[in-house]
């Protein structure tokens, strides 16, 4: 007897063989995107993103810490992702899973490689800098967490304020200083299914996929890439997907800028 996942996989492949997707989208179309900022009142910055039925929440907190030895004149940035059990039946409580670690690293790498945060603006003095902690929570998994979380993290950072720091004390009530953002990076994730390349795979499409590629760009430069799953992509396919990512950046960036 076929499993539910196998039935869904076969259906996805049958639809793609006809040049169709089950939600009516084109092969290179995103699902509906919605971004809401300021969703967490106690965070320095926050954003909720809905990408189809995928829902993620990002919050930013700042803390005063010592600078890193190799970067004494700048602040720090860390991204962590949590796959909440309420988001998907296969997610469980406990230590971060490999999927959660990969998600946090991909989002972190895009922002870091894109030089999105002016880390030198977070320098306080020789013993103190601001550290930026970005926490991303998956509320509902409907596919393509990478792009949804990148949008949420960037939107939360764009809405972020730096608390005051007076006489060695953090003044969180002071929200007059915006976090200095120098660049906006977005990611586009593709799946390869039976030789067909599609953008923004849904959950069922991810189950059916044999290869996945996430491309992070700022529209001018390629900032990062992450290959996933066991299938392969040709050099020609990768070049094609990178080009599409550059073209899609302006569309994704417009959603972020609307919520600045």
Keywords for this entry:
alpha+beta; 260 residues; Ribosomal Protein S5, domain 2; six-stranded mixed sheet; 28% helix; four-stranded antiparallel sheet
Which fold name corresponds to the CATH topology? Ribosomal Protein S5, domain 2
The helix count comes to 5
CATH superfamily: GHMP Kinase, N-terminal domain
CATH architecture: 2-Layer Sandwich
As a percent range, the share of strand residues is: 25-35%
Number of domain modules: 1
Low-pLDDT runs of 5+ residues are none
Distance between the termini: 51 Å
Describe the structure in your own words.
- With 260 residues, the protein is of the alpha+beta class.
- It has one domain (31-258): GHMP Kinase, N-terminal domain (Ribosomal Protein S5, domain 2, 2-Layer Sandwich).
- Helices cover 28% and strands 32% of the residues.
- It has five helices and 14 strands.
- It has helices spanning 4-17, 98-113, 145-158, 203-208, 235-258, and strands at residues 33-37, 45-51, 54-65, 76-83, 123-125, 128-140, 161-162, 164-166, 169-171, 177-178, 186-193, 196-199, 211-217, 222-228.
- Strands 1, 2, 3, 4, 5 and 6 form a six-stranded mixed β-sheet that branches.
- A hairpin with a 2-residue loop joins strand 5 (123-125) and strand 6 (128-140).
- It is elongated and about 65 Å long.
- The protein starts with a helix and ends with a helix.
- The model has no long low-confidence stretch (mean pLDDT 95).
Write a brief structural summary.
The chain is of the alpha+beta class and 260 residues long. The chain has 5 helices and 14 strands.
């Amino acid at each position: 007897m076929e499993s539910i996942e196998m039935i869904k996989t076969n259906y996805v492949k049958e639809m793609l063989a006809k040049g169709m997707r089950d939600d009516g989208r084109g092969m290179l179309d995103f699902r509906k995107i919605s971004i809401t900022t300021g969703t967490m009142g106690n965070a320095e910055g926050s954003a909720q993103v809905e990408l189809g039925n995928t829902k993620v929440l990002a919050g930013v907190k700042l803390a005063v810490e010592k600078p890193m030895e190799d970067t004494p004149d700048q602040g720090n940035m860390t991204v962590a992702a949590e796959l909440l059990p309420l988001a998907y039946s296969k997610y469980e409580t406990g230590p971060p899973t490999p999927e959660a670690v990969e998600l946090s690293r991909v989002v972190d790498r895009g922002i870091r490689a894109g030089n999105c945060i002016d880390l030198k603006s977070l320098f306080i003095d020789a013993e103190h800098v601001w550290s930026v902690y970005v926490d991303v929570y998956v509320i509902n998994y409907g596919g393509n967490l990478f792009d949804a979380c990148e949008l949420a993290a960037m939107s939360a950072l764009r809405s972020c304020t730096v608390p005051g720091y007076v006489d060695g004390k953090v003044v969180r009530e002071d929200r007059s200083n915006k976090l200095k953002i120098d660049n906006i990076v977005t990611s586009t994730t593709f799946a390869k299914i039976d030789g067909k390349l599609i953008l923004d795979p849904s959950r069922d499409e991810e189950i059916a996929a044999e290869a996945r590629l996430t491309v992070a760009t700022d529209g001018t430069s390629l900032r990062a890439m992450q290959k996933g799953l066991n299938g392969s992509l040709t050099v020609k396919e990768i070049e094609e997907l990178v080009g599409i990512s550059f073209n899609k950046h302006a569309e994704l960036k417009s959603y972020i800028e609307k919520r600045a």
